[in-house]
Fold:
Amino acid sequence: MSERQVVTAASVRSRKRAEGSEPIAMVTAYDEPFGRLVDAAGVDIILVGDSLAENVLGHEDTLHVGMDEMAHHVAAVSRARPSALVVGDLPWLSYHLEPLEAVRNAARLIRAGAGAVKLEGGRRRLPAVEAILAAEIPVMGHLGLTPQSLHAMGGYKVQGRQLGAARELLADAKALADAGCFAVVLEGVPEVLAEKVTGEIPVPTIGIGAGPSCDGQVLVMHDLLGLSRRPAPKFVRRYADLGELVLAAVGRYCADVRSGAFPSEEETYHGSRELAAGLGEL
Ligand code: KIV
Structure:
């Protein structure tokens, strides 16, 4: 089997569909086993998203993870040594206060093994974006329904439905691309707006709940595999029901333990007759 080419922020940047490229496939992962599996399955980008908070750590929203957790999980995924680009998500408040702090936090994710960082927001976040880029760290933008703005948005709502808001989002996307972001995630926006943004900016857009016109797609792995505890949003396609598989497998294991069917002879280490005799005399 031929070795996969290593995916870099620079190689992602060149993948506009309009120029003949295939759509980019991105998925989240939060640990080594799933980092290894999604890489072997052929994804281009593994996002260690701050959705870690909900999908792995049991929090209600993404506002509850900080830099320590994000660096810990970026390091775990990176130990899979994937060919896919690992993007580390900067958590809420890690890049909002001072550009210098944003650079230090981005550098932590790079030292943990990421090849790029992602952050939410448009023109308001340009000082952070520019400072991180000036430290030679590739940045992926994220616009639209940005979960870290949950309270400011008044809930998880599709963004850019009105012309004024759509105009602002387009201006944000252009500003991020002009600043040097290598790609921009568009989350929870009407398809026509995603199509417009995709046509107007020179770097790839990666959609989640943004329709088929983007240069790539991203899904949260726990939604795609049926591991989430919440009902999946309309834009999710569930490719497997691992939750059901886990219930059935662990249920069978419990039944076998309780009935004595596990472990069997073949699953047991046997000692010599001498050892058994010696133990009898102890
Ligand atoms: O954290 C995350 O999973 C994300 C995706 C929804 C893009 O940011």
Q: What stands out?
A: The longest strand covers residues 139-144. The chain has a mean pLDDT of 97.
